Automatic annotation (TrEMBL), chain A:
Protein species of origin: Acrocarpospora macrocephala
Function: Catalyzes the isomerization between 2-isopropylmalate and 3-isopropylmalate, via the formation of 2-isopropylmaleate.
Catalyzed reactions: (2R,3S)-3-isopropylmalate = (2S)-2-isopropylmalate
Domain of life: Bacteria
Similarity comment: Belongs to the LeuD family. LeuD type 1 subfamily.
Annotated signal sequence range: none
Protein name stated in the entry: 3-isopropylmalate dehydratase small subunit
From TrEMBL, chain B:
Gene label: leuC_3
Keywords assigned: 4Fe-4S, Amino-acid biosynthesis, Branched-chain amino acid biosynthesis, Iron, Iron-sulfur, Leucine biosynthesis, Lyase, Metal-binding
Family per similarity comment: Belongs to the aconitase/IPM isomerase family. LeuC type 1 subfamily.
UniProt cofactor note: Binds 1 [4Fe-4S] cluster per subunit.
PANTHER family the record matches: 3-ISOPROPYLMALATE DEHYDRATASE (PTHR43822:SF9), HOMOACONITASE, MITOCHONDRIAL-RELATED (PTHR43822)
UniProt name for this protein: 3-isopropylmalate dehydratase large subunit
Pathways involved: Amino-acid biosynthesis; L-leucine biosynthesis; L-leucine from 3-methyl-2-oxobutanoate: step 2/4
Catalysed reactions, semicolon-separated: (2R,3S)-3-isopropylmalate = (2S)-2-isopropylmalate
Organism: Acrocarpospora macrocephala
């Protein structure tokens, strides 16, 4: 996973609520067995509409997605995170996220930032008014900044540390392999196995 | 202070707890399918890691398989299924491939084998893993990074979600099903209402449900945003499990049941949130919009966006009506449907097929109607009862087991603009095929709708 400390970039406002992961990447794109190439499938159905915000050239190169509430609901497909990252997004800001999507994002180094709906709307309006304006997302300070404005966001210390360091979760867990073995030895003997 | 069921199961699985870190949770059962696992196996190979517990892992082919006999014609889909077969062989995992008697939708086969038991932690790279919570365990969907994590370590680092009780008091009226209940719950609390929670469904109406009905309810917990849904085990649970291939036997059975009986929320336990539902007021429920929270009683009309006070909900409703091709104020019973789908991890079990067959017996369908058993065993059992003959005589298609039209990935899809009544779990834009329009319904409403060609409750049939 790539480390995330602070990121400054332009943003794109996606003013829709309940953007489920089927919209972020439709199921037909999930047939791939590779981990790359998903940027072409990002919002594939919506991008067929020339008026869809991502098709607006003024937002080309944006790396921060300003989304409506309940972003990333539905399917657990991590492909949604891969598609956003491979398209060029480093951060998604929304008032609420689907739990699994948010979890998947932090495993991959795409930063999900929760801000109040009112603040997200303010940011969306600012970016719509001037698409060249840049937003800074500072994980060290847990702060989003735009011009003179600054808004704090919450993220638990452990996830923040892991993102700042770009640490591999599996490697961290395997440091506790002895604890896992001890737990396994104490499990109820009647618990099922698949063999 | 007493503990909730969720707290008891969680605590039982904590491998390691340290200040300022998520708990390291042991996973009792890991279900695998072809779509969300290939990149996880690649990750294992890159890091030269093995599957820690092949004996707690089981794989099946479901999402990407056709439901008619024969090979997979799409080369990309075929390659994905073949990749799962290669990975299962390389890492020594039990796999139920297409055509195998044990094959089926991942959330149907776990309970069917008796692998899903009370008090377990169960994960799968699929959000509908919440289904398994019907047995009183904690079961939740994970992404591919976490699939790899569980393969390598048999654990997951996680913070314990908050707890929510959904108390369903009173009895469900005749003709009102588990599906109607969960659709009504989601409409009440919204698609984000359960975010950050494990939901425990409680109350008389829940206790009265069969295991199949309980699975339908827990299955759709994720549609209310909840990480997991669960129901305390009871005699219904034990009766379902006893004698299944992987259920404990003999003294072990007695020992297990004694433990399972402790798996209930203590009387003095406190939930972080409580939602109450009056079962007696419920009627057949359908969705009209493009998220599962946009639902209404079948007897109602397509809502007017201006009825929604919240501007976000109002604009979502406007957008949904446009996508769905619906006019506000139209009675839902007047909505004409092209295709009916009965199946999926939500409603693809034997009880669901029986319910649909009871309505279709001696009648003829007016719509394209797909009846898709959730597993090969469900198919076999249904055929033993002659349900397949009922469906075929009515003009419906009787298919092989798979996820089918639930997700628009395999050949079973809607055409652009086509409208379905579907027993699946998601009415998202394009979920059943690009441009397709989905109304989520119970198997009973699906079957009655197939007969009339319009959204219909069984009670409406002459």
């Amino acid at each position: 996973m790539d480390a995330f400390t602070t990121h400054t970039g332009t943003a794109v406002p996606l003013r829709r609520s309940n953007v489920d992961t089927d919209q972020i990447i439709p199921a037909v794109w999930l047939k791939q067995v590779s981990r790359t190439g998903f940027e072409k499938g990002l919002f594939a159905a919506w991008r067929e509409d020339p008026n869809f915000v991502l098709n607006n050239p003024v937002y080309a190169g944006a790396s921060i997605l300003l989304a409506g509430p309940d972003f990333g609901t539905g399917s657990s497909r991590e492909h949604a995170v891969w598609a956003l990252q491979q398209y060029g997004f480093r951060v998604v800001i929304a008032a609420r996220f689907g739990d699994i999507f948010r979890n998947n994002s932090t495993k991959m180094g795409l930063l999900p930032v929760i801000l109040e709906a009112r603040v997200v709307e303010e940011l969306q309006a600012a970016v719509a008014a001037d698409p060249t304006v840049t937003i800074t997302v500072d994980l060290v300070e847990r702060q989003v900044r735009l011009g003179a404005g600054a808004w704090s966001f919450e993220i638990d210390d452990y996830t923040r540390w892991r993102l700042l360091e770009g640490l591999d979760d599996i490697g961290l867990t395997l440091r506790h392999a002895d604890d896992i073995t001890a737990y396994e030895n104490g499990r109820q003997p009647w618990l099922p196995t698949t063999v | 202070m007493g503990r909730t069921l969720a707290e008891k199961v969680w605590e039982q699985h904590v491998v390691r707890r340290a200040e300022g870190e998520p708990d390291l949770l042991f996973i009792d059962l890991h279900l695998i399918h072809e779509v969300t696992s290939p990149q996880a196996f690649d990750g294992l190979r890159l890091a030269d890691r093995k599957v820690r517990r092949p004996d707690l892992t089981i794989a099946t082919e479901d999402h990407n398989v056709p439901t008619v006999l024969g090979p997979i014609s799409d080369p990309v889909s075929r390659a994905q299924v073949e990749t799962l077969r290669k990975n299962a062989a390389e890492f020594g995992l039990r796999l139920h491939p297409m055509g195998d008697a044990g094959q089926g939708v991942v959330h149907i086969i776990g309970p069917q084998f008796g692998l899903t038991q009370p008090g377990m932690t169960i994960v799968c790279g699929d959000s509908h893993t919440s289904t398994h919570g019907a047995f009183g365990g904690i079961a939740f969907g994970i992404g591919t990074s976490e699939v790899e994590h569980v393969l390598a370590t048999q654990t997951l680092p996680a913070y314990r979600p908050k707890t929510m009780a959904i108390e369903v008091n009173g009895a469900l009226p005749y003709g009102v099903t588990a599906k109607d209940l969960i659709l009504a719950i989601i409409a009440k609390i919204g698609t984000g209402g359960g975010q950050g929670y494990i939901v425990e469904y409680r109350g008389e109406a829940i206790r009265s449900l069969s295991m199949e009905g309980r699975m339908t309810v827990c299955n759709m917990s994720i549609e209310a945003g909840a990480r997991a849904g669960m129901i305390a085990p009871d005699e219904t649970t034990f009766a379902y499990l006893q004698g299944r291939p992987h259920a404990p036997q003999g003294d072990a059975w007695d020992e297990a049941v004694a433990y399972w009986r402790t798996l209930r929320t203590d009387d003095d336990a406190v939930f972080d949130q409580v939602v109450e539902i009056d079962a007696a007021t419920l009627t057949p429920f359908v969705t009209w919009g493009t998220n599962p929270g946009q639902g209404a009683p079948l007897a109602a009309a397509v809502p007017r966006p201006e009825e929604f006070a919240d501007p976000v909900e109002r604009s979502a409703a406007e957008r949904a009506l446009e996508y769905m091709g619906l006019t506000a104020g139209t009675p839902l019973r007047d909505v004409e449907v092209d295709t009916v789908f009965v199946g999926s991890c939500t409603n693809g079990r034997l009880e669901d097929l029986r319910a649909a067959a009871d309505i279709l017996r001696g009648r003829t369908v007016r719509t394209r109607t797909l009846i898709v058993p959730g597993s090969m065993l469900v198919k076999l059992e249904a055929e033993k009862e002659g349900l397949d003959e009922v469906f075929k005589a009515a003009g419906a298609e009787w298919r092989e087991a798979g996820c089918s039209m639930c997700l628009g990935m395999n050949p079973d899809t809607l055409a652009p603009g086509e409208r379905s009544a579907s027993t699946s779990n998601r009415n998202f834009e394009g979920r059943q095929g690009k441009g397709g329009r989905t109304h989520l319904v119970s198997p009973q409403v699906a079957a009655a709708t197939a007969v009339t060609g319009k959204l219909t409750a069984p009670a409406d049939l002459a």
